[in-house]
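Thought: the user wants the 3D structure for the chain below. I'll pass the sequence to the structure tool as-is, report back what it returns, then summarize two notable features.
Action: structure_tool
Action Input:
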Amino acid sequence: MAERSPSGMSPVRRAWLRELGIERLWNLPGPVLQAPVPGIVQAGVQDDAGAVQGAESPMRDVAAPVLRTEAEAAEAPAEAPAPVALDPEQAWAALEEEVRHCTACGLCQGRTQTVFGTGPRHARWMLIGEAPGEQEDKQGAPFVGRSGKLLDNMLAAISRSRQVDVFIANVIKCRPPGNRDPLPEEVARCSPFLMRQIELIQPELILVLGRFAAQTLLETDARIGSLRGKVHTLSLHGRSVPVVVSYHPAYLLRSPAEKIKAWQDLRLAASVGGA
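Observation:
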């Protein structure tokens, strides 16, 4: 898998979002940099990777400050206050509010409500599914009904629960009509929300459930059978998170014989993500 940039997106995903005109940087809480003004070179501004933007070398001369008289200073327009960096709690609340009111794609027109995710904000594990179904859309929570009960039993078998140490989210936050697979443009507009959740939670392990979620997160078109049974890696801001792929609980309800493979995946996850 391609290495991700310090902003958390691979070059493929960044190009995809830029093509759609919706490229967004989901930075971790910290100093917020102002966008450069067209025609003005900013010297000595560091990006997330620590590189200096607007300077040919670390030894580049910086222009001396402009001195103004008191009269000129009084007539000059007041400078805008510097952006205030959000702490993790504020960043989480702001993200949840943004998801709640998102209208970036057509899925917003048919939803009952968005499905942000459930679980502790500092969970050790993060489970990622595909998209909300009918019941999820009604209740505003992921993995409810029969699939949710099976998932809860699977987690309990390895001493995990969504109430204690697992946060559960979907790639898509709104229900697609008829539970169809999300369209590429819908993924492009919604997946940055998921990447931001991962950055804020900083899980020790990610367990991906279902073909669509696995292919989206790992940026591959490989079949789920070839993705499961091994440990993948998701790199964000210089931090590598192990990723394990397994079947979606809804698929296991239709194909109970595959539950043994799902159990093997859970044991693999537990061996990587701690007992």
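Final Answer: Structure generated. The beta strands are 45-46, 52-53, 125-129, 166-170, 205-209, 231-236, 239-246. Residues 92 and 200 are 7 Å apart (CA to CA).
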